[in-house]
What we know:
Layout (H helix, E strand, L loop, with lengths): L2 H16 L5 H13 L3 E9 L2 E8 L1 E4 L4 E3 L6 E2 L4 H14 L24 H5 L14 H4 L6 H11 L13 H15 L3 H13 L5 E2 L13 E4 L2 E4 L14 E3 L1 H12 L6 H8 L10 E5 L2 E10 L2 E8 L4 E10 L3 H12 L24 E4 L6 E7 L2 E6 L2 E9 L2 E4 L4 E6 L4 E5 L4 E6 L2
Antiparallel strand pairs: 1-2, 1-13, 3-4, 5-9, 6-9, 7-8, 10-11, 11-12, 12-13, 14-15, 14-21, 15-16, 16-17, 17-18, 18-19, 19-20, 20-21
Amino acid sequence: MGKSTLILLIVFSSLSSFGQTFSIAKLDSFFNALEKRDLAMGSLTIAQNGKIQYQRALGYAYIDSIKKIPASINTKYRIGSETKMFTAVIIFQLMEEGKINLDQKLSLYFPDLPNASKITISNLLNHRSGLHNYTEGTNYKEWMDKPTTHEQLLKIIQEKGTDFEPNARAEYSNTNYLLLSYIIEKICNMPYEMAITKRIISKIGLVNTYYGRPIDLKKSESASYKNVENKWQKEKETDLSIHVGAGSIVSTPTDMITFIEALFNNKLVSKSSLKTMKTLVDGYGMGLFPFDHGSQTAFGHNGRIEEFYSSVRYFPDAKLSVAYITNGIIYPRIDIIDVVLKICFNEPFIAPFSKPITLKSEDLDKYVGKYSSDQMPIIINCTKDANKLLLETRGKMFEVEPINNNYFMHAATGYFFEFFPDKEELQIKDTDNIYYLKRSK
């Protein structure tokens, strides 16, 4: 066998390990089960080697007492903090043009802000500025739907001060990327909306991505919904003037795939800039976060605004991209993505809802007990009644439904319970959080 032929076979084998033959039937089955039980709404796109392999929309883009508009793969969603990747890209573009640098001080642009003479552009990019998050401790929910000027937000940032000294540690704060977008506007001498259009959207041909306005059904935009007593209840809309480069963009999973692949193929920034964006300090990159799945490492970002939850991940070794955006979530986002990735990488697993689960009374014994946490004041008493598993907390008792091995749900409240009997542990999951409890001995 010739050397070149051997190399080609090795390359082909490595690509096949992703398995361009991953099971579409398994993906369809999983999402059909979620949709049938009304546990999620949204849209998913999977690509490999730059080619779309799978697209799926489920649920509705809009619901009211008169009509329901089904979601499609072209439905547009607010992507929340995924916007921060766009902001970071433009900052690095400006660095490459010599218009800004990582060591530049915030005081050059906003000298009146706390610690402005100490905070660098680098600190803002990797969340090490110490500036307080303007969406926390500011009665944010009371003014989130009202137009807010730069001056008003700068005043809030100034009044809330700092939580720690610059570069002392990392702590996620929307303030960092709001200020970076204001800096972009100053350097580019144009609104952030125009900057992302010129430097990213038009450059790589994003056809369904733009700076958001009030939700417009005529543009196939989606509203977001929270499940309240088994009914989807529309969430209050954020006025996106509040977030600018911290969370103002509307997009689709397919466009987010185009964006993340353009970034990693150096169509937006240089190899050197991308390397710096990927460099982690205390788990934070500059506009990018790491995500692990087994031995595979991905880069990307999550987002949340109202009840929109989004995630985009790119696995460089597998050339695999996954983007998921939901506008109504009960089944945990982290579990949805985990199932999708297991299918993509052809890993053996049992999907939830894939088969009926009937438990006998003795099967429940391994779960019975009292579970608590040192991190929060929560106690779960787990008991059984014949073949029913019952959980009690804060004086309320409810039955949970088995959906997989050691995994139960209470759909009415949106809580999911995964037991690890060998470790004496219980994980409680909701839309986007995991709470860890231990069983008392």
